[in-house]
Amino acid sequence: MRRQARTIVATWTLVAAASILNSALALHGAETAQLMKTTTIEGISEYHLSNGLKVLLFPDPSKPTVTVNLTVFVGSRHEGYGEAGMAHLLEHMLFKGTPTHPTIPKELQSRGADYNGTTWVDRTNYYETLPASDENLEFAIGLEADRMINSYVKGEDLVSEMTVVRNEFERGENSPSYVLAQRMMAAAYEWHNYGQSTIGNRADIERVPVE
Question: Which conformational region is residue 97 in: left (phi greater than 0), alpha (psi within -120 to 50 degrees), or beta?
Fold first, then answer.
């Protein structure tokens, strides 16, 4: 019975993901996306939406939790001149709220969620792990769909978050292992953005405009 319940929840995950993502796109004039299963390998099923989005479904009957992880294939290697650290800063800004979810961290904490976002050279991701329930699952998927489109970017939020990012930058400057790793990457990828620090440089971070 427990396994059957987990299977129902997992199936609902896919249906909810497609439904909520389609709703978000419809609000912006996009056509409703069609869902198509492409493959299943080692229990992980991959589905494609006609709008280009992919959904990976990985049911785990042993877990009393559900995790929603959204990965965007944009990272620090896509930054141009004077933009070093912008992908990482934007990741931070997407926790500042939307008209529908004005206090994202508080909303997640109230549901007992473990959550975060990370930025790397090729991608940025946001995730939340919550107690498994239909309500929490719908909330998490809806949150991700909403903040990808409607996130605030306010001047006062940018100022406060730049302080956080600067602190991360300074911690890296004082970490021998981080400095060594960064110098190795810079030597290996001298003419490619893989050689640039994902967290950026101080000058670009401090000059970022709100616009």
Answer: left
